[in-house]
C-alpha cells in the first residue's frame, strides 16, 4: 500500500511539474528593437514608444540604451508632438551617455525644439534631390 501511494504521489508531482515547466517566450533586447521599429514603420508610435521604454526598464545595462532614449525623443518630437517630453529624453541621453554617437543628433533636436523652428524639415528639404 505504501508503495502504491509513493508512485501515486510521484506521478502527481511529475504531472504538476511538467505542467509548470511550459516554455515561456523570452523576448530579448534585439527582438524588442525589431518590434519597436516595426511599430514605428506602421505609424503605431505609441506602441513604439512603449517598447523602447520597456527596453530601458528591462535592460538597464544595455549598450543600446542611448538609442532607445533617442528614439523615444524623436518619436515624441516628430510624430506625437510631445516636445517637452522629447526634450527630457534627449537631455537624459546627453547626461547619461556623453560619449554616444547620438549626442550631436540629440543636441540638434534640442536646438530645434527650443528655437520653435522646424529645423529638421528644412534639413530634409535641403538634402532631398
Descriptive account of the structure:
This protein is mainly alpha-helical. It has a domain of 88 residues: Alpha Horseshoe (Serine Threonine Protein Phosphatase 5, Tetratricopeptide repeat), CATH 1.25.40. Helix content is 74%, strand content 0%. The chain contains seven helices and no strands. Helix 3 packs antiparallel against helix 4 and helix 4 packs antiparallel against helix 5. The longest helix has 19 residues. About 6% of the residues have low confidence.
Structural features:
Serine Threonine Protein Phosphatase 5, Tetratricopeptide repeat; globular; mainly alpha; 129 residues
Strand proportion, as a percent range, falls in: under 5%
Structural class: mainly alpha
Shape: globular
Computed Rg:
24 Å
- Approximate helicity band: over 70%
Q: What kind of assembly state do the chains in view correspond to?
A: single chain
Largest sheet: none
Beta strand count: 0
- The CATH class of the domain at 29-116 is Mainly Alpha
- Helix/strand order, N-terminal first: HHHHHHH
* CATH architecture term of the domain at 29-116: Alpha Horseshoe
Terminal-residue CA separation: 87 Å
| Rounded mean pLDDT score | 82
- From the 3D structure, determine the CATH topology of the domain at 29-116: Serine Threonine Protein Phosphatase 5, Tetratricopeptide repeat
User: How would you name the CATH homologous superfamily of the domain at 29-116?
Assistant: Tetratricopeptide repeat domain
Number of helices: 7
Low-pLDDT regions: 18-25
